């Protein structure tokens, strides 16, 4: 004789407007929870999936049940799904389940077994399931590995060592490149200083020559002419100075933009700029995105180039 | 995936010492080598136990839902984690029986014109209470 209170999932099913949807949501949450406790992002994902269902109740009890892996609730949900969603009606549900389990990379072995159970439950034959899996995951379906064998753990250990070695190599390469960049910068700065000095000397020489010439002319010409000459010379000097001044100090708008690229407020000192550049270069270096594919690396190298340009401009200008 | 505990004849919450003893006593060399790596290393055993729990659950689910011979339930996994068919009955039938009982109770209550019955009970209780009060008063003061 059935007696006792209705448990939380039974209550949920009885209040649901669509029992199959409620059961399906619990099974999807179970698929996700069999990798580990549900994260905030996973909850949000399931909530967005649930917005297309007609269940009409709160999702919080489903999350709790899935986190606890409540056996009775899962069995009841499986029975409801088996009854209501057999055959072709199961495809959308299985697609969602596969998409959720491949969202964070390769599904865990538990997730593999849960998916296989769901396929059997809904009467989807292996060849069809493999097709669905390939559509969702973008790679062919592979039978789950067997952690009760020694080879599994040996292969895992081997993989870990190889990853470590690669990481080490990458670090090494990045450090080398940074050292090379620093050296290049040092060289460039020296060259600029030398050029600056040469220009200064040239200007000094011209100035001297002009003064010499003026003195000679002044000696030759009378008082009136001399005064005129001096006035004119002063004017020309002034204009020369003005031109020179326009070149050296940083163009304000452009300097502000360059500072903004490095994430600094206007008027930052050279030391601050250098520090900010080092930090940004480290976070945006393209080698860091090597593992995440061509596209990510390309955008990262663009960002890095922009940061480098800003830094070089500021170093040249200030 | 095999059930190493079952093959070594151990409960799945066996202590490390018991496991070591069982591995030493095992005569099957391949099983012995596997068990040494899987159950002998604590972190490997932890991962294995988590998966073992999931597969036990799935085995029970399959037994109750009649899926012990599905195409995705084969080889060593099916051998080790299948359970004999379970006659605890389907949860859904249980739910329906429970709902039927609740509906029956509700209907019975409505049939007896519940509000009227409630008022009658209230009046009866008041009269009884008054009579008992009067009797007590009479005996104590008399």
Could you characterize what this model shows?
The complex is a heterodimer of chains A (318) and B (142). Chain A is mostly helical and 318 residues long. Among the domains of chain A are: 8-144; 250-318, Helix Hairpins, CATH 1.10.287. Chain A is built from 13 helices and no strands. Chain A has helices spanning 8-15, 19-33, 40-50, 60-68, 71-84, 90-102, 109-121, 126-137, 150-220, 223-247, 252-261, 270-283, 294-317. In chain A, helix 2 runs parallel beside helix 6 (90-102), helix 11 packs across helix 13 and helix 12 runs antiparallel to helix 13. The longest helix of chain A is centred in the middle third of the chain and has 71 residues, at 150-220. Chain A is elongated. Chain B is built from 7 helices and no strands. Chain B is elongated, with a radius of gyration of 31 Å. The mean pLDDT of chain B is 88. Chain B has helices spanning 4-8, 16-25, 29-38, 42-65, 75-81, 91-111, 114-141.
Features:
heterodimer, A: 318 residues, mainly alpha, Helix Hairpins, 13 helices, 75% helix, B: 142 residues, 2 domains, 7 helices, 74% helix, 0% strand, elongated
Summarize the structure.
Chain A has 318 residues and is mainly α. Chain A has helices at 8-15, 19-33, 40-50, 60-68, 71-84, 90-102, 109-121, 126-137, 150-220, 223-247, 252-261, 270-283, 294-317.
Break the fold down into its secondary structure elements and pairings.
The complex is a heterodimer of chains A (318) and B (142).
Chain A: H1 8-15, H2 19-33, H3 40-50, H4 60-68, H5 71-84, H6 90-102, H7 109-121, H8 126-137, H9 150-220, H10 223-247, H11 252-261, H12 270-283, H13 294-317
Helix pairs in contact in A: 2-3, 2-4, 2-5, 2-6, 6-7, 6-8, 9-10, 11-13, 12-13
Chain B: H1 4-8, H2 16-25, H3 29-38, H4 42-65, H5 75-81, H6 91-111, H7 114-141
């Amino acid at each position: 004789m059935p007696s006792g209170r209705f448990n939380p999932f039974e209550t949920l099913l009885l209040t649901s407007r669509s029992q199959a949807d409620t059961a399906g949501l619990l099974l999807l949450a179970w698929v996700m929870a069999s990798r580990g406790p549900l994260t905030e992002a996973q909850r949000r994902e399931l909530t967005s999936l649930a917005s297309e269902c007609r269940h009409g109740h709160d999702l919080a009890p489903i999350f709790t049940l899935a986190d606890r892996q409540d056996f009775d609730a899962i069995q009841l949900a499986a029975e409801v799904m088996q009854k209501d969603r057999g055959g072709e009606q199961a495809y959308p549900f299985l697609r969602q389940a596969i998409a959720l389990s491949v969202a964070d990379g390769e599904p865990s072995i538990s997730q593999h077994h849960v998916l296989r159970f769901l396929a059997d439950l809904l009467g989807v034959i292996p060849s069809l399931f493999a097709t669905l899996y390939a559509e969702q995951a973008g790679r062919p379906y592979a039978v789950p590995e067997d952690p009760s064998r020694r080879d599994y753990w040996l292969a895992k250990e081997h993989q870990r060592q190889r990853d470590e070695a690669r990481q080490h190599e990458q670090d090494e390469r990045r450090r080398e490149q940074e050292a090379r960049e620093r050296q290049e910068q040092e060289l460039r700065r020296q060259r600029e200083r030398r050029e600056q000095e040469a220009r200064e000397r040239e200007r000094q020489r011209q100035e001297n020559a002009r003064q010499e010439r003026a003195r000679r002319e002044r000696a030759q010409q009378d008082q009136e002419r001399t005064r005129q000459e001096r006035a004119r010379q002063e004017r020309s000097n002034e204009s020369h100075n003005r031109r020179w001044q326009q070149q050296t100090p940083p163009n304000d708008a452009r300097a502000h933009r360059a500072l903004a690229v490095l994430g600094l407020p206007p008027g930052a000192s050279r030391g601050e700029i250098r520090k900010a550049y080092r930090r940004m270069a480290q976070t945006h270096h393209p080698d860091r995105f090597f593992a995440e594919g061509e596209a990510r690396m390309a955008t990262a190298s663009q960002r890095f180039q922009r940061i480098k340009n800003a830094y070089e401009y500021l170093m040249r200008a200030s | 995936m095999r059930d190493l505990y079952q093959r070594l004849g151990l409960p799945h919450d066996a202590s490390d010492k018991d496991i070591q003893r069982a591995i030493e006593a095992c005569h099957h060399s391949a099983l012995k080598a596997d068990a040494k790596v899987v159950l002998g290393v604590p972190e490997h055993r932890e991962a294995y136990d988590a998966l073992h729990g999931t597969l036990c659950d799935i085995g029970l689910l399959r037994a109750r839902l009649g899926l012990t011979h599905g195409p995705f339930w084969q080889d060593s996994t099916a051998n080790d984690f299948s359970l004999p068919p379970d006659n605890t009955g389907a949860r859904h039938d249980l739910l329906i029986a429970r709902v039927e009982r609740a509906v029956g109770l509700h209907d019975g209550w409505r049939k007896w014109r519940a509000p009227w019955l409630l008022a009658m009970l209230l009046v009866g209780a008041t009269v009884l209470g008054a009579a008992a009060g009067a009797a007590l008063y009479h005996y104590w003061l008399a």
